[in-house]
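Question: I have long wanted to understand how a fold can be written as tokens. Here is the record:
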Amino acid sequence: MSAFYRARDGGIDLFVRLTPKSGTDRVDAIQESADGRSHLAVRVRAAPEKGAANTALERVIAECLKIPRSTVTVVAGHTARLKTVRIEADPAAISTKLDTFAAAED
């Protein structure tokens, strides 16, 4: 399984598969697509209209990682299910939180 995030200068790029119009807002699990790429599966109640689902995704990620909402931004895949979310924070600290989350999956 490939990594579902990548460290970069000043933060992390997190790879996400978003499911909008769900019954709840939640982070589901780390999943692997048919091409071998890994991503974090996230569900949000918001509909994919006028950026509402992307905004909800940013909020859910921030809450999950206990970081300020302003540090989380969708940077790629704005109209697609597969997205790249940039987290502007200490890469080591965020990596530790993400690795702990991934370990809970095992």
